[in-house]
Amino acid sequence: MKKVLPSGKRDADFFEQVYQVVRAIPKGRVSSYGAIAKFLGTGMSARTVGWAMNAAHGLADVPAHRVVNRNGMLSGKMHFGTPTEMETRLKAEKIKVVDDQVQDFDKKFWDPALADW
DNA sequence: CACTTGACTTATT
DNA sequence: TAATAAGCCAAGT
């Protein structure tokens, strides 16, 4: 893993901090941009996490489909190859998706701060 | 270097 | 409860 940056400071590798968390999301679970941003600390915002996802969509080991917004809505589905890819991937992991929203989101939600790293 | 844009979130009306 | 505003921060223009 890359070095952990001092609080409030960032560099070009800040994407990897996001990737590390996203990769750690257990199969069949989801998380949110805000939760990841909060976990990573000061200087990070939900928008920044979203930007990191945008840059991560090419990496096979970064399951961006498991990251949704605070309401459990698939806000990033249109950024995949096809608008249905995100939903399809989630369903493949037994995550129910109806009308672009994760069902039982509060149960599927995975908080990085509660992980046993 | 200033302004705009966007896979967000929270507070206010 | 729904619509709007404001705060947020990196990258692109």
Question: Would you kindly provide a written description of the structure presented here, covering whatever features stand out?
Answer:
This protein has 117 residues and is mostly helical. It has one domain (14-108): Arc Repressor Mutant, subunit A (Orthogonal Bundle), CATH 1.10.10.10. Helices cover 35% and strands 7% of the residues. It has helices spanning 14-23, 33-40, 46-56, 85-92, 105-108; strands at residues 31-32, 67-68, 97-98, 101-102. A two-stranded parallel ribbon has the order 1-2. A hairpin with a 2-residue loop joins strand 3 and strand 4 (101-102). It is globular. The structure holds a DNA duplex (13 and 13 nucleotides).
Tally of distinct domains: 1
**CATH superfamily membership:** Winged helix-like DNA-binding domain superfamily/Winged helix DNA-binding domain
Indicate the percent of residues in helices: 25-40%
CATH T-level fold name: Arc Repressor Mutant, subunit A
Measure the end-to-end span: 13 Å
Q: Give the tally of β-strands.
A: 4
CATH class: Mainly Alpha
Protein structure class: mainly alpha
Tags for this entry?
disordered N terminus; single chain; 117 residues; Arc Repressor Mutant, subunit A; 4 strands; globular; DNA-binding; two-stranded parallel ribbon; 35% helix; two-stranded antiparallel ribbon; mainly alpha
Topology, please?
Blueprint lengths: L13 H10 L7 E2 H8 L5 H11 L10 E2 L16 H8 L4 E2 L2 E2 L2 H4 L9
Parallel strand pairs: 1-2
Antiparallel strand pairs: 3-4
Helix pairs in contact: 1-3, 2-3
The protein binds a DNA duplex (13 and 13 nucleotides) through helix 2, helix 3 and strand 2.
